Amino acid sequence: MRLLLLTALAMTAFAANSVLTRLGVAQYGTAPEAFAVIRAASGALVLCLLAWARGGGPAWRRAGLWDAAALALYLAGFSLAYRSLDTGTGALILFGGVQITMFAGAVLGGERVPLLRWIGAGVALLGLAVLLRPGGQIAPLGAGLMAASALGWGLFSLRGRGVRDPLAASAAAFALATPMLLPLLALSGPVTAGGALTAMLAGAVTSGLGYWLWYGLLPRLGATRASVAQLSVPVLAALGGLMLGEALTARLILSSAIVIGGLALSLLPQRNP
């Protein structure tokens, strides 16, 4: 039960990231490039302070550069995509892509995937296909950027399975990702007060603390269960989008229902042969 509650808390934080980014970029008018940099820097500051306060500081290691690169890809694509995508649509593309990435990584890594989890994953991806089928009026550039973001987040999550100290690893990843994102500022436009505040909140709380929690849960969930659990996020994000005045379309409702059905199927207990 504790694992379930903590996983639900992490998923809520992920959904809040979509809402905050859409709010800061599309409604408050902050350039997505600047939003990504502020978000990363805020997460780095909070996590490094917590790591130093606990003793030991961030876990600087050579492999951490790959973690940071995956995180930077996720943060950049995420902010840029939300200039043209609605909250729920973006989250559905993101976590559908994350599922593909993490399932592929799990299979290549030799993780045993039960049949029901395969079927559930297939049903969930069918829900994503319903959303993205021709005629859905989804911005192609936004969808492509969110797919790149999904690749980054999937790789970041896969690498987090073997982390022994989630706080130290998360602090180092955010600290190293921030300078990787700085070149985006050369392309950046205006930064508003509201956009900066939402970026800091997304970085310090729903990203920094949320990802620290997620890194701690990953070893207990495994790659495939973690990927499927994240498919609950688009539904939560779509509900959050209602607060921003976004429409809840029939296509998004149908797609979300199929995705949640796949999630439920994948999480059914497996019988031993």
From TrEMBL:
<keyword id="KW-0472">Membrane</keyword>
<feature type="transmembrane region" description="Helical">
    <location>
        <begin position="88"/>
        <end position="108"/>
    </location>
</feature>
<dbReference type="InterPro" id="IPR050638">
    <property type="entry name" value="AA-Vitamin_Transporters"/>
</dbReference>
<dbReference type="Pfam" id="PF00892">
    <property type="entry name" value="EamA"/>
</dbReference>
<feature type="domain" description="EamA">
    <location>
        <begin position="142"/>
        <end position="267"/>
    </location>
</feature>
<feature type="transmembrane region" description="Helical">
    <location>
        <begin position="193"/>
        <end position="214"/>
    </location>
</feature>
<feature type="transmembrane region" description="Helical">
    <location>
        <begin position="226"/>
        <end position="244"/>
    </location>
</feature>
<dbReference type="InterPro" id="IPR037185">
    <property type="entry name" value="EmrE-like"/>
</dbReference>
<keyword id="KW-1133">Transmembrane helix</keyword>
<protein>
    <submittedName>
        <fullName>EamA-like transporter family protein</fullName>
    </submittedName>
</protein>
<feature type="transmembrane region" description="Helical">
    <location>
        <begin position="250"/>
        <end position="268"/>
    </location>
</feature>
<dbReference type="InterPro" id="IPR000620">
    <property type="entry name" value="EamA_dom"/>
</dbReference>
<keyword id="KW-0732">Signal</keyword>
<feature type="signal peptide">
    <location>
        <begin position="1"/>
        <end position="15"/>
    </location>
</feature>
<feature type="transmembrane region" description="Helical">
    <location>
        <begin position="115"/>
        <end position="132"/>
    </location>
</feature>
<dbReference type="GO" id="GO:0016020">
    <property type="term" value="C:membrane"/>
</dbReference>
<feature type="transmembrane region" description="Helical">
    <location>
        <begin position="65"/>
        <end position="82"/>
    </location>
</feature>
<keyword id="KW-0812">Transmembrane</keyword>
<feature type="transmembrane region" description="Helical">
    <location>
        <begin position="138"/>
        <end position="156"/>
    </location>
</feature>
<feature type="transmembrane region" description="Helical">
    <location>
        <begin position="168"/>
        <end position="187"/>
    </location>
</feature>
<feature type="transmembrane region" description="Helical">
    <location>
        <begin position="34"/>
        <end position="53"/>
    </location>
</feature>
